[in-house]
Each structure stands twice: as structure tokens, then as C-alpha cells.
Amino acid sequence: MSDDIAAATPESGASASKAPAVIAREVQRRRTFGIISHPDAGKTTLTEKLLLFSGAIQMAGTVKARKSGRHATSDWMEIEKQRGISVASSVMQFEFRDHVINLLDTPGHQDFSEDTYRVLTAVDSALMVIDAAKGVEAQTIKLLDVCRMRNTPIVTFMNKLDRETRDPLELLDELESVLKIQCAPVTWPIGMGKNFRGVYHLLRDEIMLFRAGEEKADGAFEIVKGIDNPRLAEMFPLEIEQLKTEVELVHGASHPFDLEQFLAGVQTPVFFGSAINNFGVREILSALVDWAPAPRPRNATVRDVAPEEQPFTGFVFKIQANMDPAHRDRIAFLRVCSGRFERGMKVKHLRLGREIKVSSVVTFMASSREQVEEAYAGDIIGLPNHGNMQIGDSFSEGEMLVFTGIPYFAPDFFRSVRIRNPLKIKQLHKGLQQLGEEGAVQVFKPVQGSDIILGAVGVLQFEVVASRLMNEYGVDAVFEGTSISSARWVSGDDKRVLADFEAALGHNVAYDAAGNLAYLATSNVNLRLTQERWPKLTFHATREHA
Ligand code: GDP
């Protein structure tokens, strides 16, 4: 597309001033990835080292320091003021080798919530951190399932090789069988724990020597070229023989790295290292820059949107609530899908059909000095949200489209809601309706009875909701345990069957805040039996944003 044509398009608006070539170049140099792991695998440590190596931070400890603080309670002003790495470190932007990297955290521990899952709908690739002593753990499995919904390419980092770990071949086997993903080892460890000597780079035929505690920011570890190099045999006579045997095994038994397969989400390149010792971190950054995809086209109603298109578009994938009563504002996290965003620009909120001027936008440079005034596809911006934005909301310069593929997940935790003051029942319903629509929690109203059931994927969500009901709606709600243990959305072609289903199981059939039919099961057995008894109905563990 030439400049002239672009300028002549009516909806090109503010972005007409940017040549398409500029946008295309900015898109090509962007990498947006999520970092996923089970708690304690070393995600925070690795994040910090990635920032350290890119030069975004000068000192280790910055990310760690904020991890201990409960960022859900930090207030908007504070976020505005610090705007750098302290912005909950949920999004961090930094540069490496002339690439702009957006790193999105997937909060775990007590912060685990649906947002954790939805973050993965806003990334183009993911970095999976595994504790090599433990192997694949529960939270990793869940998060990987979400990555698979969009065939997101995954880079794997096997961490903590400075400890006694499990056998590396066994780890790859487990990855393949449990996560159902092909493994292509790129580096291979030489020893482990006290005898960890380094890694062999299978593609480059180089050995990178390990020295514990090398906190050098440039991560320059000594490299010895060639597995047959006589120097190695002199240095580690025993280990090198074993390495040669293992490398032969690996070449025979595992898949060679294949970029296409990686990009299709079928294969993951695997790196071994030790985040705390800076070892293997540079290789991860290089893999992200060299192999991970730049922003890709996104599906929307009407058509697909290419990242290089001139007009700005984007969607909200996460809303961070504020628990401080003095500052009720929340931030809506928006992923830019195309064009160029500029501070102060007018964009159209498509669900409300209203134009809004975005002047106070939060950006996430890891080194807080820079003030970013513009954003391109792949970048994340934080918009102040006074209650008018919901998960899945799309924004454009005017074109009517809705980005699809932003899922809701069947909750794992349930509470029934009671209020202390019955006169507040209206406010309770209003509050829950809005919080449900916003995506803070899932609200189910059973067809029979007056109960309201809340569902969440992490228990912190209940705390947030209780606090927001109190602060924003003046409702003092009490949450109690229920007999519900899982939920599934239900669909079927035959309206009569659906009506029979509702009538027969009224107490356990409910509607969610968006009006979708769901079944609330009391146990796995109960769910299975119900599915068997109603073969004409389909039970879904996820649903897309309506
Ligand atoms: P997260 O919960 O995944 O963010 O994990 P952290 O980064 O907080 O790490 C959990 C623990 O593992 C901390 O005590 C880290 O110091 C430790 N750790 C992280 N990386 C390594 C490593 O390479 N080797 C060893 N021995 N410990 C590590």
C-alpha cells in the first residue's frame, strides 16, 4: 500500500502521518511473550535476569523486591508515579538487540486468577520455566493448555541445573508425554548440582562453561568450540565421555529443532541453565529474538486484522482492580493489534459506540526513565478504567470489529453469596452483574432457588470482589462454601432438550452474567453421569467472550 492510498482512506485518521514502512518495521522488531511456570520454578529470577541482560535494570533484586509486596493493593497514583517495573511487573517492556520485547507475567500463588489465563491470549509466544528437580507441575499444565488454544509457540527453560535435578532425558520424556509437545533440545547439560560443568549447544557445537555465582550482566561465559576439542577432554575427562554418549542418544531419540514446527506450537526448543547464576539466560533472549514470532494477524468478527495495518486497533484482555478504597480506578490492559497508538489520541470504544480520548495512558518500560508516547502492534498499554471497560472490549479508529478468542474458563472455586442487610439486595445484584461482565468473577444464578453462586479460578478473586462490593456498591457480602465443585457451559441444538434439562436439574442449572447456560456439578462423578444422561448436550470447559 502506498502512502497516497493510505492517506486517502477515510478511517486512517491520526495514523496517516506514519508511513506504512515505519509501522511494518516497528511490528517486525516486536516480540510479545508470556512467562509461565509453576510457583517457585524461578520465573521471577529469570524475569529479573532477562531485564538485567537487556540493560533495562542495573541491579538484581528489583523485581524480587516488588514480588513480596501485594501489588493488588498498591494504588493507582503509585502505579502512575512509578510506571516502570513496579507497575505490578505484570507487563515489562525492554529492548534487546534492536528489538522491543514485551514480557507479560502470568501471576501465580495467591494472585492466580482468570487474568492469569487471559494474559496468554495477548501474547505471540510463551517462555515456560521448569524446575529441573521437579519436572512438569500442575500450574504449568493448566497454562500450557491455554497456550494450545491458539497454538502459541513455546520456548522451554529447564532451570536450577546447579542443583541435583532429574535425569535430563527423563525430563524431556515427561514434557512430551504430559504436555503433549515435541521437545527439541538446543542445549544439553554437562553434569548437574556440584558437578554442573556447563551446557553443550547442539546447533552450534559449542560448550559453554559454567561458573557458579557469575553475576556478570553481560553473561559472557567461556565458550569452547567443538565437542571433540582436546581441551575439554583434559578439563573434564569423565564428563565429556558421558556427554558424547548422551548427545548421540539425544540426536537419535529427540527431534531436531525445526522453526516451522516451533511456530506452529507443535515443538518446543529446550534450554538448560540456572537463572540465579545467569547461566543460559542470554540464549533464551536470543531464541526469543531470533525464533519467536513478531505480532501476528488477529481474528476479529468481519475479518482478520494484520498488525501492519495503519489504523489503530486493540482489545482489553485484563482489568486490574484496585483494592484501595481511596482510589477506585482500575487499569484496563489493552493489547495493540494494529496501527500506531499515540498518547492523547481519540479511539472508539466499540461496545459502547463512543469515542474516547486517551490522555492518561500507562506504559510499561522496564527502565522507568523513558516515557513512551506511542505504541505498535504487540505493545500493551494501560487505560484508566472508571467502570466502562470490560474484558474483551475492542477499540479502533472507527471500524466496527470485535476481536475474538478471549476465553472465559470454567472456575475451580465456588462460593455462595449472602448479604447481611437484605435491603441491599438490589445493589448486590447490580454489583455482581457489573463485576461479572467486567470479568472479575463469574456469577451464576441457578434457575431454581434464590442462591447466587460465584466461581473463580483463584481464591484471591473472591477477596477482590468482596472488597469491591463493599467499596463501590456499599454491600457487605458474606461468601460461604457450597457443594458445587465444577462448572461447565452447556449448549445444544434442540431447544426442547435444553428446556427439559433446565426443568429436571433446576438447582444445578444456572445462567452466567452474560446469559449463558451452565451446569454446576457437585463432583466429577456427578458431572460425568450428567454428561452421560444428556448425550444431546455439549459441556464446555471454556467459553468465548460474547
Ligand atoms: P517463582 O515463584 O517462579 O517466581 O520463583 P523465584 O524466582 O522466586 O524462585 C524460587 C526460588 O528458587 C528462589 O529461592 C530462588 O532463589 C530459587 N532459584 C531460582 N533460580 C534458581 C537456580 O537457577 N538455582 C537455584 N539453586 N535456585 C534458584
TrEMBL record:
It is found in: Cytoplasm. Pfam families: EF-G_D2, GTP_EFTU, RF3_C. Its main location: cytoplasm. Residues 28-296 form the Tr-type G domain. Residues 1-21 are annotated as: Disordered. GTP binds at residues 37-44, 105-109, 159-162. Keywords: Cytoplasm, GTP-binding, Nucleotide-binding, Protein biosynthesis. Increases the formation of ribosomal termination complexes and stimulates activities of RF-1 and RF-2. It binds guanine nucleotides and has strong preference for UGA stop codons. It may interact directly with the ribosome. The stimulation of RF-1 and RF-2 is significantly reduced by GTP and GDP, but not by GMP. Belongs to the TRAFAC class translation factor GTPase superfamily. Classic translation factor GTPase family. PrfC subfamily. This is Peptide chain release factor 3. It comes from Massilia agrisoli. The lineage of its organism: Bacteria, Pseudomonadati, Pseudomonadota, Betaproteobacteria, Burkholderiales. The gene is prfC.
